[in-house]
Amino acid sequence: MPPASTPASTPLLLFTQADVAGHALFRVVPVEVSVHPGQGRLWVDLSKGNAFTPAWQRHAQHLAALGRAHYALPWEETDLHVSPRGRGVTLDGRSASLPLFVAWVALLSGRPLPAPFLGTGVALDEHGERLAPAPREFLQGKLGVAQAYVKQVFPNAGRVPVYVPEGSGFDAAPLTALDVRPVPTLTRAVSAVLGLEPRQGAVGVTTKQEGE
Fold this sequence. Notes:
By secondary structure, the chain is of the alpha/beta class. The chain has helices at 54-70, 97-109, 136-153, 186-194; strands at 9-20, 23-37, 42-44, 51-52, 78-84, 90-91, 118-119, 160-165, 178-183. Helix 1 packs across helix 2 (97-109) and helix 2 crosses helix 4.
């Protein structure tokens, strides 16, 4: 567990996309993630009309398996709790791979996340920890939402780092409030954000199956 003086929870921003009347709607979904003594399980908050699809929950277990493979942290002795702050939120994609993984490692290692911490990226289960390049129009929409958020909530922060998959297409010119930083893998994202390196000799990953 993290040191007693370190909070075991942290706010996290997830960038999502939904199709509304044939148009892509991008938005910021704030959630609270926390770790508690447990058995390596995932707990999701379904109150207030919120929902997590089975695919999202399975992917979180994949991230836990990656974490166990790369970092000597108390994965098996803690449970992860994820709770949206709003109402009627459905999390069904995997673009939370990067921010959720980094936040999880931060909580277990007792290292603070920067404020704000912005990131988006998909680590496909079949590709291990490697982040899949995001389509240009998809990522540009999320970066636009991130910029609007920074300008509103952190107007004096300067250019705020935002971590995205390496090889993704985007236009940096209009993103005057952001410093877009591509990373190839989840562990490289952890290194960039937290300054924590993975242990040497990490090998294959087998996803642990738990009741959800």
